[in-house]
Amino acid sequence: xxxxxxxxxxxxxxxxxxxxxxxxxxxxxxxxxxxxxxxxxxxxxxxxxxxxxxxxxxxxxxxxxxxxxxxxxxxxxxxxxxxxxxxxxxxxxxxxxxxxxxxxxxxxxxxxxxxxxxxxxxxxxxxxxxxxxxxxxxxxxxxxxxxxxxxxxxxxxxxxxxxxxxxxxxxxxxxxxxxxxxxxxxxxxxxxxxxxxxxxxxxxxxxxxxxxxxxxxxxxxxxxxxxxxxxxxxxxxxxxxxxxxxxxxxxxxxxxxxxxxxxxxxxxxxxxxxxxxxxxxxxxxxxxxxxxxxxxxx
Length: 298
Ligand code: R5P
Description:
Bound molecules: ribose-5-phosphate
Helix content: 40-55%
Strand order of the largest sheet: 1-2-3-6-7-8-9-10
Number of strands: 10
Distance between the termini: 78 Å
Shape: globular
Number of helices: 13
Radius of gyration: 21 Å
Structural class: alpha/beta
Mean pLDDT: 94
Low-confidence stretches: none
């Protein structure tokens, strides 16, 4: 008869239960390595498949733009309401406490300002993204602009370097001053970036034809907000974008330049993650804004 020692060593392999082989929730992302998938699962919510990224990297070309004069004061109140901080290393190290649990999408391309040709960028080292515990890196690409070759090369080099360490790359379809943001151009640019290996793409919403842009791009798309527009309009744009297949937003000015940025972040979140109607999300915005004003008066 086996003694207590033998009982302790008895193994239970449960052979009758087949091991599950799960797919991955993001489009075009089923063949990635574990680290890459894990990082993408921090950027995109595995339940909704979507994300609310807060873009506040504008200073890298524009200096202290409206709404971002004081990143320490302007960004931290928004942090609880968004999913991802998208910024430069300078903003991160100087203004964001390292105690944050929010994933970071680190802007890795740089080297131009609004004073000169914007498309003349280079790209930083992937080691810096690893050092900063980034969940993804962002590289701006200027398809059809003077810096097309340089910026597409930046993307290819970054994807190669990121693949070595499990770091996803977000390709950004930057649009030059003279260029149309229509479905034909954005469809071309997003597809090129995806084929060069970008793991997800940031582009602009366009009408008509955004669903064709999404359909023709084999990896997830998030939209930039673009110039500040009235809050209800921005919520409608976000709703139309996710309704036509975008996996969320990487929004800046339409959040941090809103009359109440904290309320706007929550309204955008309701649209993106809960499929809230824009009008309802705008009601939420107005209510939260009113409550915040009430608190200030007291
Ligand atoms: C532009 O310089 C940056 O890449 C921004 O992150 C991007 O334009 C998104 O911000 P916004 O929603 O303000 O357009």
